[in-house]
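Design job #97: recover the sequence.
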C-alpha cells in the first residue's frame, strides 16, 4: 500500500542532511517562528515542517498536486486530523507491544506480530470507514486515489480473510505439522498445516486440556512425561521449526503495514502543519492565498498585499503589506528610509517563495512567481569576536559559498551586503556580483543604503530592474510601505535620532515599526 500524498509517483523521504544553506535561510528569514506555528507544540510535526519547507519542489505540477490536497484538508479538517491521528496511534501502540522480534525466538516473534497486526487490523478498518464515508467528498487527485486504494485493497473479503488468519495463528488448539524422516532418522521438510476452525464447547476444550479424550482408531499418540525435560525440549524444538517460516512471513507483513502507517503519518503530517498554520493566521485575521507557481525560468514575480509571515505570527497587531510587480525584472533594488520596512519586505519575498515551492498557501492576497532552482540569502551579520578575519572577508567567503552552489534560475536575497567597507568599495563589489548573477539568469533582490550602488543601476536605465523605496512622509513618519521610486542619497537617519531622543526626553515610548 502506498500513500502518495506528497508526490504523485513516489514516497516523501526527508533528507537526513539538510541543504548547506538551510541554516542561513532559517536564521535570515526567521523560519523557526514558522516551524513552531506549523508544529503547534508537536516535536514530530516540527521536523515535518522543517524538512518540507526547506526541500523545495521543482515542477509546477508537483506544487499544484500538494495544493489541491491541502485545499481538501482545509475543507474537511476533522477528517484530515482523524487520518493523521490513526497513523500516529498505530506507531505509538506498536511501540507499546512487548516481545522479541528475533529469528532465535520465532514463537515470541510470532505472538508479538499477531498482537501488533491485531492493532493494525483495527486501525485499517477505521481508515477504510473514513474512506467509505468521505472519499467521494474529496476533490484532489491525491486524496481521491488514497481513498480508492483503501477501499480496493481493504475490501470486505480481504478484511474477513485477515481476521480469519489472525484467529488461526493464535493456535489455541495447538499446531498441526507434518515432517519426514531424512538421513540418520533426522527430521526434514517441516510444514505447518492448516487446521479447520471448528467451534468447540468449553467442556471439549477442558477434556483436551486434561488429556481425557482418546485417540481415534487411526491415530497414534505419544505422551511426554511431565518430568521428561528432554522430551519437552524436543517438542519445543519441533514447534519452533514448524512456525519459524510463518513467524518470519508475519514479521514482514507487520513491517510492511508499519511502514505504511509511518509514511502516512509523515506525509499527512505536512497537511496537519498547514491546518495548524491556517488556524494561527485566522486567529490573527491575516489573509493568505494559494499562489500560481510558474515554470523555472519564468521572470514573473508579482504579489498583492504581501506581508512578513513570521513577523505576523509573533505580533498581535496587523502587519503592513506591500504590492510588488516585478514581472520580467530579475533585479529588485530596495532603498529608502531607515527602519522603513525594507528588510521586512525582503524576508516576505523569501518566505513566500519557500512556502509556494513546498505546496502551501502564502501570506498575500495574490502571489505568482517562477519556481527557482535554489533560494539563497546573504544578510549582514553582527560583529563576531571569534572571527579570524574582518567582516568583509567573512561576507566574501559566504558569497563564494553561494556562487559554488547556485545555478541558473536561482534567487539570492541580499540585505545590506558589503556595507562593512566604505561605500565606494562596497558598491563596486556588489555591482560586479549583481551583474554576474543576472548574466547567469539568477533573480536578485537587494536591500541597500549604498546610494552609489543603487543610483548606478538606476542611471544605467536598467529595464530589467524594479526600484522600490521605503515610503517616508513629509513629517518623517514611516508608513512601512514600499513605493516605486528613484534611490535617494539619504536614509534619513536623523529622523530616527530625533524620534528616539525626543521620546526619551518626553518619556514617551517609541512605537513598533512593524505593525499598524
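Job complete. Output follows.
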Amino acid at each position: 500500500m502506498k500513500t502518495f500524498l506528497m508526490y504523485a509517483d513516489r514516497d516523501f523521504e526527508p533528507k537526513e542532511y539538510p541543504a548547506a544553506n538551510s541554516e542561513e535561510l532559517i536564521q535570515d528569514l526567521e523560519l523557526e517562528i514558522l516551524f513552531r506555528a506549523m508544529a503547534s507544540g508537536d516535536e514530530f510535526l516540527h521536523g515535518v515542517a522543517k524538512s518540507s519547507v526547506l526541500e523545495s519542489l521543482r515542477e509546477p505540477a508537483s506544487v499544484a498536486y500538494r495544493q489541491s490536497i491541502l485545499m481538501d484538508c482545509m475543507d474537511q479538517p476533522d477528517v484530515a486530523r482523524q487520518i493523521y491521528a490513526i497513523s500516529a496511534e498505530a506507531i505509538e501502540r506498536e511501540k507499546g507491544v512487548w516481545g522479541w522480534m528475533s529469528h532465535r525466538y520465532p514463537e515470541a516473534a510470532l505472538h508479538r506480530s499477531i498482537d501488533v497486526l491485531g492493532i493494525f487490523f483495527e486501525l485499517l478498518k477505521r481508515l477504510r470507514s473514513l474512506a467509505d464515508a468521505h472519499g467521494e467528498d474529496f476533490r484532489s487527485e491525491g486524496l481521491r486515489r488514497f481513498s480508492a486504494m483503501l477501499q480496493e485493497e481493504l475490501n470486505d473479503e480481504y478484511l474477513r480473510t485477515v481476521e480469519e488468519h489472525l484467529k488461526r495463528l493464535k493456535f489455541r488448539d495447538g499446531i498441526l505439522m507434518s515432517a519426514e524422516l531424512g538421513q540418520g532418522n533426522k527430521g526434514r521438510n517441516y510444514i505447518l498445516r492448516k487446521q479447520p476452525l471448528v467451534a468447540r464447547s468449553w467442556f471439549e476444550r477442558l477434556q483436551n486440556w486434561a488429556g481425557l479424550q482418546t485417540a481415534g482408531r487411526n491415530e497414534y499418540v505419544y505422551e511426554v512425561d511431565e518430568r521428561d525435560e528432554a522430551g519437552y525440549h524436543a517438542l519445543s524444538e519441533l514447534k519452533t521449526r514448524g512456525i519459524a517460516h510463518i513467524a518470519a512471513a508475519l514479521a514482514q507483513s507487520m513491517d510492511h503495514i508499519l511502514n505504511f502507517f509511518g509514511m502516512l503519518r509523515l506525509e499527512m503530517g505536512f497537511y496537519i502543519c498547514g491546518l495548524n498554520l491556517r488556524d494561527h493566521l485566522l486567529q490573527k485575521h491575516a489573509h493568505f492565498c494559494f499562489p500560481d507557481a510558474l515554470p523555472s525560468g519564468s521572470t514573473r514575480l508579482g504579489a498583492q498585499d504581501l506581508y512578513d509571515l513570521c513577523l505576523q505570527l509573533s505580533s498581535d497587531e496587523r502587519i503592513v503589506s506591500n504590492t510588488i510587480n516585478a514581472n520580467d525584472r530579475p533585479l529588485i533594488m530596495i532603498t529608502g528610509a531607515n527602519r522603513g520596512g525594507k528588510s521586512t519586505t525582503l524576508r516576505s519575498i523569501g518566505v513566500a517563495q519557500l512556502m509556494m515551492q513546498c505546496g502551501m498557501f502564502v501570506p498575500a492576497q495574490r502571489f505568482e512567481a517562477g519556481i527557482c532552482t535554489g533560494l539563497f540569502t546573504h544578510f549582514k551579520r553582527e560583529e563576531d569576536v571569534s572571527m579570524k578575519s574582518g567582516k568583509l572577508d567573512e561576507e566574501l567567503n559566504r558569497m563564494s559559498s553561494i556562487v559554488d552552489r547556485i545555478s541558473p534560475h536561482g534567487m539570492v536575497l541580499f540585505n545590506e551586503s558589503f556595507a562593512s567597507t566604505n561605500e565606494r568599495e562596497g558598491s563596486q563589489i556588489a555591482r560586479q556580483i549583481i551583474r554576474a548573477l543576472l548574466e547567469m539568469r539568477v533573480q536578485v533582490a537587494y536591500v541597500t543604503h549604498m546610494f552609489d550602488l543603487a543610483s548606478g543601476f538606476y542611471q544605467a536605465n536598467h529595464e530589467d530592474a524594479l526600484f522600490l523605496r521605503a515610503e517616508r512622509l513629509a513629517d518623517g513618519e514611516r508608513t512601512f510601505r514600499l513605493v516605486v521610486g528613484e534611490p535617494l542619497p539619504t536614509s534619513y537617519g536623523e529622523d530616527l535620532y530625533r524620534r528616539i531622543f525626543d521620546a526619551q526626553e518626553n518619556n514617551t515610548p517609541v512605537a513598533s515599526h512593524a505593525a499598524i
